[in-house]
């Protein structure tokens, strides 16, 4: 008997569920690529389903609480991942149709030995969801943010900013690029708008980054508008010796090299360093690359400046990585705070007297930003704050705090567009002795 072919769309649903299940288990989300799904249309659809399920995770939690009186079944294989993908489609992607969401969900868990006994439950839950989809679609958008996060960020940034955060999570992030050269023709070819200095933004794109005009020739690199700020605040004459700690994938290394500095880029991960090297080769830049631990690296000669983009909770990147909102705990942040302090202490040791230290994180948590400034000034004698002045960021003076620190978040919009920017913190210090 001939094998009956799988229903159309089932393969992409199975692969999407596998990737979502890994993220629910704690993995970092990496979009599906051609190796996962060769067909571009299937891949785009699968990534759309996963992204929607992640961005709407909080709202889907509320829906699940209503639909599953006894909660999610334990030891149920792919059941939760398939259910979340299907709810994302039924409630938040109505253009994809309801029938495929129900049919393919049941077919998908029938392929899973640990979930197939739940096929009836899957069908019943999704039919109930379908009948309530209009009501679910009107849910409070702030529910996309976890309740502890809503409370903390509302206190820190205000209710209006919190509303913008929720909208930013749902909408996702545009693509920001830093240009190698001032190139109006490239900006036009990309269909981009200028934001700040050499940063441009693509609100929409119809192809991968490596297929964009100018990519192969190394005429730009991907870098969020907020991430491009720290290197611009170095306040160092051209040709200074600069150490870029935790440098991969290399956006700030490229900026520093472009500015004419002698750059040493350090990272402790061989695979990340290989990616940095490939990026520099594409751009035509040749910084010194060092594989070492930033917490104990001891250079032969001290540097005029050090830029430390410290490992952090990455909560400021939630527009691209929604999973950070659900994966991060107070304990995670505390562990990163201790690492940041070790890195700050060694960055200070690598710096000449009179030199500049930039400390930055892509975090919205004060423990990884403002409170680290207090720690550094207390723990590192000879280090003083070198306040950032609003006129240094004339396009965005509102991101400079009265203390001379920089704080960005997705509720702040650079340029004339509607989309915001990543959450970022920047402090600038000077070593006095």
TrEMBL record:
Record domain SAM-dependent MTase RsmB/NOP-type: where: 137-432
Protein name: SAM-dependent MTase RsmB/NOP-type domain-containing protein
Keyword check for Transcription: no
UniProt xrefs under InterPro entries: MeTrfase_RsmB-F_NOP2_cat, MeTrfase_RsmB-F_NOP2_dom, NusB-like_sf, NusB_RsmB_TIM44, RCMT, RsmB/NOL1/NOP2-like_CS, SAM-dependent_MTases_sf
MF term (GO), any: RNA binding
Organism: Devosia elaeis
UniProt keyword terms in alphabetical order: Methyltransferase, RNA-binding, S-adenosyl-L-methionine, Transferase
PANTHER family: NOL1_NOP2_SUN FAMILY PROTEIN _ ANTITERMINATION NUSB DOMAIN-CONTAINING PROTEIN, NOP2 YEAST -RELATED NOL1/NOP2/FMU SUN DOMAIN-CONTAINING
UniProt keyword Nucleotide-binding, yes or no: no
One Pfam family cited in the UniProt record for this chain: NusB
Residues the record marks as active site: 362
Highest rank taxon of the organism: Bacteria
Residues bound to S-adenosyl-L-methionine: 246-252, 267, 293, 309
Family: Belongs to the class I-like SAM-binding methyltransferase superfamily. RsmB/NOP family.
One biological process term in Gene Ontology: regulation of DNA-templated transcription
């Amino acid at each position: 008997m001939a094998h009956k072919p799988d229903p159309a769309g089932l393969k992409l649903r199975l692969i999407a569920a596998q990737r979502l299940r890994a993220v629910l288990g704690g993995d970092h989300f990496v979009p599906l690529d051609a190796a996962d799904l060769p067909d571009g249309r299937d891949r785009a659809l699968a990534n759309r389903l996963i992204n929607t399920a992640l961005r709407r995770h909080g709202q889907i939690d509320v829906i699940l609480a209503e639909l599953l009186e006894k909660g999610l079944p334990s030891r149920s294989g792919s059941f939760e991942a398939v259910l979340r993908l299907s709810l994302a489609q039924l409630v938040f992607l109505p253009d994809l149709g309801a029938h495929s969401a129900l049919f393919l969900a049941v077919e998908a868990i029938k392929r899973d030995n640990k979930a197939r006994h739940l096929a009836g439950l899957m069908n019943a839950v999704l039919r109930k969801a379908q009948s309530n989809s209009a009501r679910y679609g009107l849910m409070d958008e702030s529910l996309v943010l976890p309740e502890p996060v809503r409370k903390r960020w509302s206190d820190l940034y205000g209710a209006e900013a919190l509303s913008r955060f929720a909208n930013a999570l749902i909408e996702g992030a545009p693509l920001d690029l830093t240009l190698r050269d001032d190139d109006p023709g490239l900006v036009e070819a990309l269909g981009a708008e200028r934001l700040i200095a050499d940063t441009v933004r693509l609100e929409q794109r119809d192809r991968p980054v490596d297929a964009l005009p100018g990519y192969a020739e190394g005429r730009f690199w991907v870098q969020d508008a907020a991430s491009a700020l720290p290197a611009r605040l170095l306040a160092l004459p051209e040709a200074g010796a600069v150490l870029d700690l935790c440098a991969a994938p290399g956006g700030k290394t490229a900026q520093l090299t472009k500015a004419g500095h002698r750059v040493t880029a350090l990272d402790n991960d061989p695979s990340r360093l290989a990616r940095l090297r490939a990026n520099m080769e594409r751009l035509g830049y040749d910084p010194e690359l060092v594989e070492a631990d930033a917490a104990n690296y001891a250079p032969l000669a001290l540097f005029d400046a050090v830029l430390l983009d410290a490992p952090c909770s990455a909560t400021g990147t939630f527009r691209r990585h929604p999973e950070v909102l659900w994966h991060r705990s107070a304990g995670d942040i505390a562990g990163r705070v201790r690492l940041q302090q070790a890195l700050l202490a060694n960055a200070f040791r690598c710096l000449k007297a009179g030199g500049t230290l930039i400390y930055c994180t892509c975090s919205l948590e004060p423990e990884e930003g403002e409170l680290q400034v207090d720690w550094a000034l207390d723990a590192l004698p000879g280090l003083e704050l070198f306040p950032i002045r609003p006129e240094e960021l004339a396009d965005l003076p509102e991101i400079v705090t009265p203390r001379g620190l920089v704080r960005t978040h997705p509720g702040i919009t650079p340029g004339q567009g509607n989309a915001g920017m990543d959450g970022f913190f920047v402090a600038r210090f000077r070593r006095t002795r």
